[in-house]
Write a structure and sequence with these properties.
This protein has 365 residues and is mainly alpha-helical. It has two domains: 2-259, Orthogonal Bundle (Fic-like fold), CATH 1.10.3290; 278-343, Arc Repressor Mutant, subunit A (Orthogonal Bundle), CATH 1.10.10. Helix content is 61%, strand content 4%. The protein has helices spanning 2-24, 30-47, 54-61, 73-91, 99-110, 147-161, 168-182, 189-203, 215-220, 222-235, 238-274, 282-291, 297-304, 308-320, 339-343, 348-351, and strands at 129-130, 294-296, 324-326, 335-338, 360-361. The strands form two sheets. Strands 2-4-3 form a three-stranded antiparallel β-sheet. The two termini are 26 Å apart.
Length: 365
């Protein structure tokens, strides 16, 4: 299995290099990072059973049809905020990747959600367990370490996060599995554990932009994901886990690279066509759409510094080109979506968006 692990380590390293190279050619990566972050937030939250979609989140941000929003959209929005906060910390002059930062992230994830009563921002002080709905401590699928052992394990994990003797991708894979096994929170462990991967790769400058996320891979292969973690706990099969993890880095890198290329091709094609449109601000409006693919006339006017009348005409030109779709059906307070761009982030057909595998007692997978 060591040979299998080394094979995937090599392939994952090369795929990550290609992804970093492609994203460095994007005219303005910041225009696209926001969508990747939102997509990861949706997929990671779907693993835990939320039914929110990327477009639900975009609608939430635009205050569209507020009474029709799923209640669990708040969890996804919190995930976006927590991710952005964590990335600012580890890539700037803030906190390093540490237990303190993970607790801060946890507090932001659970604020105002169904987990807000489960010690947000604090490690658990009682035993938790994982299993089907109705399971007990005795019948649980997995029982994390008791609290005193948990604290020792967390100290070891924090020391390991500073280890520079192993390849960075190996550290990321080992740290994720170690965190999931410790399960230090009463709720939100799965989401924090997946964010840990992103934070580590960005802190160590493996990627210049946070455009690699494994939630889609874990969701697609959820049964094997849980089986590989169980094999570590029961048989010490770390090499099997690392081969699985590194294969995920390879696959996710390839998919992110293709999406980045598709974004670049779409932008260039639409910029060329927009140059033939009448009026002004077409190119500037296109850049706004890549950053905020849901827009209203007032928001467009504000973003571009133009009048609402001019913004309305601008949006009419893009709607006539088949790029914008009006989604409310209203005559006033209309909302438009940039459909071709959003289509590049449609992952439901590939991930099997069918909800969680099992329920947990005071916890999540």
């Amino acid at each position: 299995m060591a040979g299998e692990m080394l094979k995937w380590l090599s392939k994952a390293d090369r795929a990550l290099g290609r992804l970093d190279g492609v994203t460095s050619t994007l005219p303005n990566p910041d225009l696209f990072v926001g969508m990747y972050v939102r997509q990861e937030a949706v997929l990671s939250s779907q693993i835990e059973g939320t039914q929110s979609t990327l477009e639900d989140v975009l609608s939430f941000e635009m205050h569209v049809r507020e009474n029709e929003r799923p209640s669990d959209v708040r969890e996804v929005v919190n995930y976006v905020a927590a991710m952005r906060y964590g990335l600012e910390q580890v890539t700037g002059d803030g906190l390093p990747l540490s237990l303190r930062l993970l607790k801060d992230i946890h507090a932001r994830l659970l604020a105002g959600t169904r987990g807000s009563t489960k010690q947000p921002g604090d490690f658990r002080t009682s035993q938790n367990w994982i299993g089907p709905e109705g399971s007990t401590l005795r019948t649980a699928t997995f029982v994390p370490p008791p609290v005193p052992v948990m604290h020792d394990a967390l100290s070891n994990l924090e020391r390991f996060l500073y280890d520079r003797s192993l390849p960075d991708l190996v550290v990321a894979g080992l740290a994720h599995a170690q965190f999931e096994t410790i399960h230090p929170f009463l709720d939100g462990n799965g989401r924090v554990g997946r964010l840990l991967i992103t934070f580590l790769l960005c802190e160590r400058e493996i990627l210049a932009q946070p455009l690699l996320y494994l939630s889609i891979y874990f969701k697609r292969h959820r049964t094997e994901y849980y089986d590989r973690l169980t094999a570590i706990r029961e048989h010490g099969d770390w090499e099997g886990w690392l081969a699985f993890f590194l294969r995920g880095v390879f696959e996710a890198s390839q998919e992110a690279t293709q999406t980045a290329r598709s974004i670049l091709a779409l932008r260039e094609d639409h910029r060329a066509h927009a140059a033939t449109f009448s009026g002004k601000d077409n190119a500037a409006f296109l850049d706004v759409l890549f950053q905020s693919p849901y827009l209203t006339i007032p928001r467009t006017a504000e973003r571009l510094g133009i009048t609402k009348v001019t913004a309305g005409r601008l949006m009419e030109r893009f709607e006539a080109a088949g790029w914008l779709e009006e989604i409310t059906g209203f005559r006033r307070n209309r909302v438009y979506r940039y459909a071709p761009y959003l289509a590049l982030f449609d992952t439901d057909a590939h991930t099997g968006n069918d909800g969680p595998d099992e329920h947990t007692q005071a916890d999540e997978l």
